[in-house]
């Protein structure tokens, strides 16, 4: 695949993304809209490891130099950045039957906003920092590891309590699949890389299985294209990955012990 150097579409939605927990928000919803309404879109792979998102053509679209971003060529070339802003925009403009969202005068619209805001201000930043300190940083700093992995666990405890007697995060009765679930999907799907077992959160695990069972979700998780398809948190991992996670768990457990961390949620 050639390195992107600018926009390539002249009509419809153009998606600029990479397969991160934030990046898949846009691709999953676009796949759902495509299946439900026939909404076509163009996508470009923005390899963040190559810093394509820092190039001037991209920062003209998103000044913050982050993925995902979209350009709506059918709406005067409007650029929208931040995954949750993209969810809101696409839902308002293209989910006309509210299959994945709620009408503005429906109280569930506000409930969905609350959970999406919770993800944006809490779960995403905390889990992102946990990934940095526990997985990516060459120097394993115990305080940072126990602080952010612990807060990630606490937040998943909050989500687990919400899903204890619900199928989806927001909606009447046991809930209805919506952009609130899509906002959380990528983060829940990446929890086990932190050596946090989904078995600790049975409500989250059952909800994740329910969401991953949707064909559009599976397709959206594989934008940009991946062959073979990207594994999910519910797939069996190979022996190498098991060993790496076991070693990471030792590091995390030692950091927690050093600072007296005790799990509590909320």
From TrEMBL:
Residues annotated as domain GST C-terminal: 105-232
Signal peptide range: none
Molecular function per GO: glutathione transferase activity
Positions of region (Disordered): 222-241
Domain GST N-terminal: 10-98
EC number(s) per entry: 2.5.1.18
Enzyme class: transferase
Domain of life of the native organism: Eukaryota
Key words, A-Z: Transferase
Short name of one Pfam family: GST_C
Entry keyword Transferase: yes
InterPro entries assigned: Glutathione-S-Trfase_C-like, Glutathione-S-Trfase_C_sf, Glutathione_S-Trfase, Glutathione_S-Trfase_N, GST_C, Thioredoxin-like_sf
SUPFAM superfamilies xrefs: GST C-terminal domain-like, Thioredoxin-like
Family: Belongs to the GST superfamily.
Protein name stated in the entry: Glutathione S-transferase 2
Organism annotation: Neonectria magnoliae
